[in-house]
Design a protein that fits this description.
Elements (H helix, E strand, L loop, with lengths): L17 E10 L4 E5 L4 E2 L3 E6 L2 E6 L3 E3 L2 E2 L2 E2 L4 E5 L9 E4 L1
Antiparallel strand pairs: 1-2, 1-10, 2-9, 3-8, 4-5, 4-10, 6-7, 6-9
Length: about 100
């Protein structure tokens, strides 16, 4: 008798979201949020902004520290992130 191996599909990994901070200010005229980072962040990372009736994902394509464009920032940095949607002070930001 030959035993057959049965392949059991692995469950798909869910996106892990890590809270990276809270919006401390939103500059509507330039669509930029200000946030103090709880984790590192770099251009190309995906973030999720949640609060009120807002819940959207965005790929970071512009990151600034004290009005200077940077490619990455570390935990504790105060950064400005250009976003595609609207946000308000107090909205939570997650890294996904």
């Amino acid at each position: 008798m030959v035993k057959e191996k049965i392949k059991v599909p692995k469950p798909k990994k869910e996106k892990k979201e890590k809270e990276m901070g809270v919006v401390s200010n939103y500059f509507e005229h330039v669509s930029v949020i200000a946030i103090k980072l709880a984790v590192g962040l770099k251009v190309g990372d995906k973030i999720k902004i949640v609060g009120g009736d807002v819940d959207f994902e965005h790929t970071v394509d512009s990151l600034q520290i004290q009005n200077k464009v940077v490619k990455s920032a570390k935990k504790g940095d105060d950064v400005g992130i250009k976003i595609s949607g609207k946000a308000r002070k107090g909205y939570k930001v997650y890294k996904i």
